Amino acid sequence: MAEQTVADGQTPDREQRILDLEGKVANLERALESRGEIGQAIGILMAMQQATSEQAWELLSSTSQDRNVGSPSLARLVNEQGGIPPA
Q1: For residues 48 and 56, what is the distance between their CA atoms, to the nearest angstrom?
Q2: Are 47 and 82 in contact (CB under 8 A)?
Q3: pLDDT tens-digit readout, 52-61
Q4: Can you tell me the distance from the alpha carbon of 27 to that of 25, in angstroms, rounded to the nearest whole number?
Q5: What is the DSSP-derived secondary structure letter of residue 25?
Q6: Neighbours of 56 (CB within 10 A)
Q7: 8-21 pLDDT, tens digit each
Q8: What whole-number distance in Å separates Cα of residue 85 and Cα of residue 83?
Q9: What is the maximal distance between C-alpha atoms in the chain?
């Protein structure tokens, strides 16, 4: 049986693989951006709380969970406001 092709000559499996890889690339780009924001927020919390990086991460992470807000979003607020905003 001949393999089905789409209009551009690629097979459906190959097209799906390309779409999957494009999605993974987009996710990695977002992760790299978030990593920088989270790192900056951890530095701010370390300075404000006289904390280690592990303690600052735990504070950011637990506050994120308590407030049901993603860590990258909370990190952005910490960076903008210079600390964890009031609830």
Answers
A1: 10
A2: no
A3: 999 999 999 9
A4: 5
A5: H
A6: 21
A7: 666 789 999 999 99
A8: 6
A9: 68
| CB of 63 closer than 8 Å to CB of 74 | yes
20: its two tokens: 């999957």
Q: Which of 67, 34, 61 is nearest to 45 (CA)?
A: 61
Give pLDDT tens digits for 26-83: 999 988 889 999 999 999 999 999 999 999 999 999 999 999 999 999 999 999 999 9
Which residue matches tokens 């209009």? 7
Q: What is the pLDDT of residue 51?
A: 97
Q: Which candidate, 42, 64, 37, places its Cα nearest to that of 53?
A: 42
Q: What's the token pair of residue 17?
A: 């693989």
